[in-house]
Amino acid sequence: MTLVTPLAIYVLAALAEIAGCFAFWAWLRLGKSPLWLAPGMLSLALFAWLLTRIDVDFAGRAYAAYGGIYVIASLGWLWQTEGQVPTRWDLLGGALCVLGAMVILAGPRAG
């Protein structure tokens, strides 16, 4: 399996998780209809299913590597959906998270 496939799965998972969580945010914080919850829950279920598609032996490793991708996707959501430009500190923190995810994904495995 190439790095592109897990990366694509992680990006899709991040978008599904953020969209699902945003549906709850919209309902509870923005006063949107409770009908937002149905697609939100489906999106969160898709997120969970997508993470099971990552080819690693341990769930914790998949989740840890996913964290870096999630942070970058969240900053993209902040900018593109909420109209707030990430600060240089947001971007630096995101870059550090992605670096950590790459180390987790590409690092050698014992035994």
List the helices and strands and how they pair.
Layout: H1 4-29, H2 37-51, H3 59-80, H4 88-106
Helix pairs in contact: 1-2, 1-3, 3-4
Question: What is the approximate shape?
Answer: flat
Outline the biggest β-sheet. Answer: none
Estimated helix fraction: over 70%
The N- to C-terminal Cα distance equals 19 Å
By helix and strand content, what is the structural category? mainly alpha
What is Rg?
15 Å
Low-pLDDT residue spans = none
Compute the average pLDDT: 90
The total of beta strands comes to 0
**Number of helical segments with 4 or more residues:** 4
Query: What portion of residues belong to β-strands?
Result: under 5%
Explain what this protein looks like in three dimensions.
By secondary structure, this protein is an all-alpha fold. It has one domain (4-106). The protein contains four helices and no strands. InterPro entries: EmrE-like, UPF0060. The chain crosses the membrane at residues 7-28, 34-51, 63-79, 91-108. This is YnfA family protein. It is a multi-pass membrane protein.
